UniProtKB/TrEMBL annotation:
Name of protein: RNA-binding protein pno1
UniProt keyword annotations, A-Z: Nucleus, RNA-binding
Pfam families: KH_PNO1_2nd (PF22891)
CDD domains on file: KH-I_PNO1_rpt2 (cd22392)
Boundaries of every K Homology domain copy: 65-128
Upper classification of the organism: Eukaryota, Viridiplantae, Streptophyta, Embryophyta, Tracheophyta
Annotated localization: Nucleus, Nucleolus
Superkingdom of this protein's organism: Eukaryota
Chief place where the protein resides: nucleus
Protein family (similarity comment): Belongs to the PNO1 family.
InterPro entries: KH_dom (IPR004087), KH_dom_type_1_sf (IPR036612), KH_PNO1_2nd (IPR055211)
GO molecular function: RNA binding
Amino acid sequence: MKIDIRMNFKARRVELKTQSDTPDVSNLQKCVDFMHAFMLSFDVVDVVALLRVDELYVGSFEIKDVKTLRGEHLSRAIGRLSGKGGRTKFAIEDANRTRIVIADTKIYILGSLANIKVARDSLCSLILGSPAAKVYSKLRAVTAHLAERF
């Protein structure tokens, strides 16, 4: 990318700047997106894809944006999102080629815009209390429809 990067410990910031031989100024934005996704706890392999593929984005939302939950209800909703041993989360990721990070009440999704929307709809259904089996069947139908379209 030919971008200068340094850590400013006094200001507690990562600073990026283009070099004279940087081929494209948009590389700076790609590097900013890379650092942002890395700090959100996405795997390095997935984050490197942000540098190589132009149509990848990071979407985010909070559980309270979907439904106001407190205490035990919030804990159960987070449990439904991840599933037993992470099965539900991995099933949603694999079905539409996205990566999901659940950090307390915030949810981050890495993928293309259409896939982020499908994953977000699935996660919202789980937050609202839908059983995982119903979400899986809806997800299969939507991914089959998307595969047909492309």
